[in-house]
Structure formats: structure tokens, C-alpha cells
Amino acid sequence: MKVTIELEGLSSEFRKEIAERISVKNSDEALEALANLAKDNDYKVRAATGSNPSTPRKALSKLAKDDYWQVRATTGGNPNTPKKDLSKLAEDDNWYVKEAVGGNPSTPKKSLSKLSIDNDPDARLAVGKNPNTLKKDLSKLSEDASWEVKIAVARNPNTLKKDLSKLSKDYYNCVREAAKIGLLRNK
């Protein structure tokens, strides 16, 4: 059964709902609808489209350059966003965008390395949680001033045993406990 949705005339809220929920199962119509929603006048609709893993890569590239940080942030968190766009978004001025990119498992390792030394603790926190963060970057993050970043590093399965041992002696009890659990996990 083929269903066609006419997007014009629908409320912004309804277009946003469609952008979030549309799923592509080899459907040219659904891909076309997402491509059209990526050009919507309402930034909330574009942001929802940017978060949808079915959104075509070409549309994601366009959304990665959007004027609204909300759109760039959802697009930066989408694992299907092209790597070149994720690398560019990693240098965004907005911390929400950098946080989304830092947590994206598709973000190139070089960009994760840059974000691991970013001034914003939320960006570093996202990188500390990312399972693709390089061990050398996790090592640097294990010395971060933020206890939240240190907990993320302690919970990351790629953290080296020497860094977990160091974190198990941290000033903060919550960091010490997370590191001890990490050490048990790595046995």
C-alpha cells in the first residue's frame, strides 16, 4: 500500500512530528519527504529532520550548515551525518553542537581528539563517553578538572588500566567508585 502525504498546508508541529517519525524502507517518497522537510521554514522541523537517521546524507550536509544551532546540534548527533560535516561541526561555536558531535559514534577520531581538549566541559564529557575515543585522549581526559568527565572516562570500556588505577585514587569518591568498577570490568 502506497501512502502519499502532502506537506504543504500542514501545521509546523505536524511537519515536525512527521520529520521525527518517518522511516525509510526503500521508499523514494519517504526520502523525498525528508529532503523537503530539511528545507522547511521552521527550524524545529529542520532540527527533527536532522535527527532522523533516515534523512538522506545530502540533506544532512545542508542541515549541518544551518543558521540555527538547534538544527546543527541534532544533525551533529545523527550517526549518518557525513564525516566531513561532523568534522566541521566539531569546530562550531555552540557548545550544544560540539556536545552532540562529541557523543556521536561516527565522529572522526581526529575531531574527537580536538574536542577532548575543548574549553567546554560538556563537549569533553561527551567525548569521554564516546566508545570511539582514542585511548590517548581518554588518558588526557582522566586528568580533567571536571569530576563528571572523569566518571565518563572511568566508565568508558577503552580506558587504559593505568588511567583507571589513577582515577581510583581521585579526590572525589564518585570518581574512585566508577574507576574501581572499571578496573573490575577490565580484569
Structure description:
The structure is a single chain. This protein is mainly α. It has a domain at 146-187. Helix content is 60%, strand content 0%. The chain is built from 13 helices and no strands. The chain has helices at residues 12-21, 28-37, 43-51, 57-63, 69-76, 83-89, 95-103, 109-115, 121-129, 135-141, 147-155, 161-167, 173-185. Helix 3 runs parallel beside helix 5. The mean pLDDT is 93.
Query: What letter string, H or E per element, gives the SSE order?
Result: HHHHHHHHHHHHH
Write down the Rg: 19 Å
Q: Please give the number of β-strands.
A: 0
- How would you describe the shape? elongated
Q: Name the beta content range.
A: under 5%
Largest sheet: none
* Helical residues, percent: 55-70%
**Distance separating the two termini:** 54 Å
DSSP helix count? 13
Show the helix and strand layout.
Blueprint: H1 12-21, H2 28-37, H3 43-51, H4 57-63, H5 69-76, H6 83-89, H7 95-103, H8 109-115, H9 121-129, H10 135-141, H11 147-155, H12 161-167, H13 173-185
Protein traits:
13 helices; 187 residues; single chain
Quick synopsis:
With 187 residues, the protein is mainly alpha-helical. The protein has helices at 12-21, 28-37, 43-51, 57-63, 69-76, 83-89, 95-103, 109-115, 121-129, 135-141, 147-155, 161-167, 173-185.
